[in-house]
Amino acid sequence: xxxxxxxxxxxxxxxxxxxxxxxxxxxxxxxxxxxxxxxxxxxxxxxxxxxxxxxxxxxxxxxxxxxxxxxxxxxxxxxxxxxxxxxxxxxxxxxxxxxxxxxxxxxxxxxxxxxxxxxxxxxxxxxxxxxxxxxxxxxxxxxxxxxxxxxxxxxxxxxxxxxxxxxxxxxxxxxxxxxxxxxxxxxxxxxxxxxxxxxxxxxxxxxxxxxxxxxxxxxxxxxxxxxxxxxxxxxxxxxxxxxx
Length: 244
Known about the structure:
By secondary structure, the protein is mainly alpha-helical.
């Protein structure tokens, strides 16, 4: 969602979005504190989760005004916000102990976030509030989840640091568009792109599971990275061949 035209939305959309964000932020911190009570997490875990969630939401909300032509934030975007909460809770595991119970917790949260994917789009279509913002918000949460999982796979030593490339490919692609405008052209809808995105998330989630150890976890992560790189290559070539 990062761009140069960030601004908070006007009322009443602003009130609806901010109310959702505040409730979600309180929920993230509360869940993180509950997790601290039952898991061996540091005192900073709740702070990390809250900060991560706040950054994601602040970045996203700056593009509501231009890309969400409705007066309410909507149930679909609230589901995506729930997914953002889960990603923040997973990201807060950065720097926490590298023990099986935390790896399993990350995998469970990832599976829940993945299960919720698609519900937001269905709600948007059902309530006739589909928007460019909602589609992009959902896509960016997917991309962030991949990056977070890739870092954790490396942190838990399930694969080498190279696995983080899985999470960086999306951002490298967007960054390259700053230098080559043809990369910013809209892509045609693709089942292949959607399937590989889900495959990447599931593969990294599988690699994190305590029962999956190297070299199997390394092979799973490597295969997923190859498929993701292939998908980006196909899209890049398609954009290159389009008439300028």
